[in-house]
Design a protein that fits this description.
Layout (H helix, E strand, L loop, with lengths): L5 E4 L14 H9 L3 E5 L8 H6 L3 E3 L4 H4 L5 E3 L14 E4 L10 H11 L2 E4 L15 H16 L12 H9 L8 E4 L4 H12 L4 E4 L9 H5 L3 E4 L30 E4 L25 E4 L5 E4 L9 H18 L7 H15 L9
Parallel strand pairs: 1-2, 1-4, 2-3, 4-5, 5-6, 7-8, 7-9, 9-10, 10-12
Antiparallel strand pairs: 11-12
Helix pairs in contact: 5-7
Length: about 350
């Protein structure tokens, strides 16, 4: 990974994706270290293109990476790639969501295999202890719990729009105390801490469970809260926290249900790592909450896979600051061990990719 330093930051295809993996200030720091950076235009990125240009970056039209980015460039992004080109030649740095058995994973990996490119999945850029180097977790937890609190109080409006944190916090504080109770599972992690902070801002008492509390899960206690926020990131299958049987009219074993809002920060639907198999489809900015059960109370789920985009500037600044040293390390003469592990995860995924032509 010692080629001439060059990054190409692509535009995001989702109109609701306003974050950037690299801020103008941090791009300027890389430029001063000798890294060449090209930034694509975007009609919805929170930072204007001229701020990157002022930092010393080159600019390019949106979506031009596939045609004009040099083969030696690392193409940097956040969310999914567009469906074309079919063959991916570059080294792509983004959240690929391709190693946990997701439905779209085989097609994406075959595109890389066909073109000889590489996926450096940011979810797997981790240190020797398995801790992710750069993550949006805190702001995902904060935004998800904030939406849950607003929805539980009947104050969530759709479609969602990005907000500065002071305005979101003002909305959270606008409601009088109402007796709501919230449970955050995975409260000690990045996402869990963000969720707890948002609920505290909203004036809602929080029960905090870490992973040890889930080993012998007290479902009656879980169902006895108004809001559940799942912030547990797992890399191996675990017993689910809730199943459809738990949501029967009287609950499992006759346990009554107070729970009315679930906010799932992990959004691992379609995967064996899904810890809340009471729902199977994500929600989105247009319809952020989906009804799971009627009755009294009804139960809704919020499961949006780009929650930090609701607070795009705050989320991008924190993420970019974490990622900056690793972007410099991409071009170090000595291979960086965290990037090597990240690449090894991609190699393993390719090796285990099912042959689509093999008979079942």
């Amino acid at each position: 990974m010692s080629e001439s330093p060059q990054l190409w930051m692509r535009s995001e295809t989702r109109p609701t994706e306003r974050r950037a993996p690299l801020t103008p200030d941090d791009a300027g720091r890389l430029v001063r270290q000798g890294v060449r950076i090209t930034v694509e235009d975007s009609g919805h990125r929170v930072f204007p293109l001229d701020a990157y240009e002022a930092a010393g970056c080159l600019t390019a039209p949106a979506g031009s990476w596939a045609r004009t980015a040099p083969g030696s460039a690392y193409v940097l992004g956040l969310k999914e790639l567009p469906p074309m080109p079919e063959r991916l030649h570059h080294r792509h740095v983004y959240f690929g969501h391709a190693y946990k058995g997701q439905a779209q994973a085989p097609e994406l990996l075959r595109r890389f295999a066909a073109g000889g490119g590489t996926l450096l999945d940011l979810e797997y850029l981790a240190d020797a202890q398995g801790r992710r180097v750069a993550a949006f977790g805190y702001w995902a937890g904060y935004a998800g719990a904030a939406l849950a609190a607003l929805h539980a109080r009947g104050a969530l409006t759709a479609p969602l729009v990005p907000l500065p944190r002071p305005e979101l916090d003002a909305r959270l504080r606008a409601q009088a105390p109402d007796g709501l109770r919230a449970l955050v599972i995975g409260a000690g992690g990045r996402s869990g801490r963000g969720a707890c902070d948002a609920l505290t801002t909203a004036g809602i008492p929080v029960t905090r469970w870490d992973r040890t509390a889930t080993r012998s899960l007290d479902r009656a206690a879980l169902l006895g809260h108004d809001i559940l926020v799942n912030a547990v990131l797992t890399t191996r299958p675990l017993p689910p926290f809730l199943t459809p049987a738990d949501l029967a009219p009287a609950g499992r074993g006759g346990v009554p249900r107070r729970l009315s809002v679930i906010a799932d920060i992990t959004c691992d639907t379609g995967s064996e790592l899904h810890l809340l198999p009471v729902y199977d489809r994500l929600t989105d900015w247009t319809a952020p909450a989906r009804r799971l059960r009627g009755g009294s109370p009804p139960l809704d789920v919020i499961a949006i896979d780009n929650l930090p985009s609701l607070l795009p500037a705050e989320a991008a600044r924190a993420f970019s600051a974490d990622l900056l040293p690793k972007l410099l390390a991409l071009h170090s003469p000595s291979p960086d061990p965290d990037w090597l592990r990240c690449r090894a995860a991609f190699t393993t995924a390719l090796e285990t990719l099912p042959d689509p032509h093999r008979a079942a």
